[in-house]
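re: ur question from earlier - yeah i can do the single chain one, its not a big deal. heres the input i used so u can compare w yours
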Amino acid sequence: MPTEPEWLIATDEEMRALGARLVDACAGGGVITLAGELGSGKTTLVRGALERRGVCDGVRSPTYTLIELYPFADLTLAHFDLYRLADPEELEFLGYRDYLNAQTLCLIEWPERARGLLQNVDLEIHLAYDPAGRRAGFAARSARGREWLARLRRGMPD
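and the output i got, formated as tokens:
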């Protein structure tokens, strides 16, 4: 998957900081997918976004519940972990479409498990192992995603 830009993330602290910058860059609801191997930092990035919003305890990947909601005054963050999704249609049974609104930011781990059901993605993030840490690559898939990525770029090193 071609991505642009791509940044090196050397530590878990830097991955959480990226999550914090990401949630700051997102205005309103939308869909962000997080792809990468086990242990590549997907949940750590989400943890950073939630910590930025003041959630400091109990942030873990909803591997068994598949979705965890975090309501805030101005926004609800919906954290999806599709790793254990047996069939892409299960996403429909979870009421996925109910979360597609201006007040909900969906962060979706393991999007490849929902083949064909995620046509409304705004921003794709791909995390990969690197000898110096992790590589974070981005691809905007909508006007909103391009706007978020432009905001995010302003806070990242070259």
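The domain at 6-153 is CATH 3.40.50.300 (Rossmann fold). not sure if urs matches, ping me
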